[in-house]
Amino acid sequence: MIATIDPAVVPVGCFDGDLDLFESQYAVPGGVSYNSYVILDEKTAVLDAVDPRRVDEWLANVERALAGRTPDYLVVHHMEPDHAGGAAALADKYPGMTIVGNAKTFPMLAAFTGRDFSARALTVKEGDTLELGAHALTFYMAPMVHWPEVMVSFERAGGILFSADGFGRFGAADPDLPWVDEARRYYLNIVGKYGVQVQALLKKAAGLDIRAVCPLHGPVLTGEALALALEKYDLWSRYVPEDRGVLVAYASIHGNTARAALELAEMLRAEGAAVETVDLTRRDWAEAVAGAFRYSGLVLAASSYDAGVFPPMAQFLARLKSKGFRDRTVGLIENGSWGPSALKTMLAELEAMKGLTLLEPNITIRSAATEENRAQMRELAKAMAQAV
Asked: Which of 171, 251, 273, 317 is geometrically suited to a Cys-Cys bond with 268, CB 3.0 to 4.6 A?
């Protein structure tokens, strides 16, 4: 795919299909790509390294792409180990190579490797350009997208933005694979807290003639795929719902809370609302977080537990809070056979999130839903359908 953009830009990254948890927390049943590129010109540059799990394969890819040449530069856009984990190995293989980063890159490189590369460092700042010949890289700082040292670079000849973790996606780098769902799960769980910083980067990108985006995970984006990615990133980083609808998220111990949540979902559909349901005890939690951001409405239904709320719901709320969940309409259902406590606990968590509209009625079920509860649920469904 990249060769059709510019034959001088050669992909040398690796696919990791054996990894079960990305960052030791996100399930990746489709694996993940560690993208890296070589630019071949009067001077040669390697753009980013890969995870230590694939360093030997990557070094062989780089050597093959160089075809006997020696790299002049290694550009480190992002110091996270899945991208810079092979930097020291490449530096050892090519001792004359200069390492390009910003002022925050090199202290991190020393911290991760225990080695001082300052004698080989070229420190760049906002707007600096690295001339390679017909190709050149201009650097733009992108702090907290999603680490403080992150930068991106724009290659003017091909109109290529090397976007670090921006516009990444779980799964292989195959452009024919669906992009949105795995890109949403990636963005909202990894980058999503930093919407303000992503907006700042998008404003910088708007001034560039970008014809392709090369992220550090997932496929190269061009044409319609690029337009879609820019649209989604703008929505996600402004916390604007993608879809007018409701996610009904439930955490049930013995099944009664689940049955009530599913009944409510049917009531919402009868009111004309688009609805997705998620069982927080079984569904991938990162997918559930992405779903909560996707929709304009959220219903939380949970059992009481140990004078609080059932742990799957507590964990879900904690993750929403940590990712900056905001500006949504929320309804609540609790279940408690003798001492209902879930509602109070959920409300306390939601109070710490910005811009939420909490709908009435709050519904309390005692063991199993009654006809009175169902009447309350119909009232909540009507209010939610109107709100979203």
From this structure: 273
**Tens digit of each residue's pLDDT (9 = 90 or more) over 3-53:** 457 899 999 999 999 999 999 999 999 999 999 999 999 999 999 999 999
Cβ neighbours around 159 below 10 Å, total: 16
Residues in the chain: 388
Residues whose CB falls within 8 Å of the CB of residue 274, separated by 6 or more in sequence, listed in order: 243, 244, 245, 246, 295
State the architecture of 246-387 in CATH terms: 3-Layer(aba) Sandwich (3.40)
Structure tokens at 144: 């907290």
pLDDT tens digits along 100-111: 999 999 999 999
Cα 62–Cα 64–Cα 69 angle in degrees, nearest 5:
80
Q: What tokens does 80 get?
A: 């996270």
**Cβ-contact 238, 199 below 8 angstroms:** yes
Distance CA 376, CA 388 (A): 18
Residue from 377, 277, 291 nearest 335 by CA = 377
Token pair in block for residue 4: 């059709």
Helices (H), 188-255: 195-206, 223-237
d(CA 248, CA 264): 8
Fold of 2-237: Metallo-beta-lactamase; Chain A (3.60.15)
Instruction: Give 108-145 as a 3 state SS string.
Output: HHHHHHCCCCHHHEEECCCCCEEECCCCEEEEEECCCC
Residue at 130: amino acid letter: L
Among 158, 206, 230, CA closest to 5 = 158
How far is CA 260 from each of CA 39, 213, 263, 300, rounded to the nearest angstrom? 58, 45, 5, 11
Greatest alpha-carbon pair distance for the chain in Å reads 78
Collapsing DSSP to helix, strand or coil, 381 comes out as: helix
Structure tokens that stand for 198 in this block? 């992503």
Domain ranges of the chain: 2-237, 246-387
Contacts of 255 (CB under 8 A, 6+ apart): none
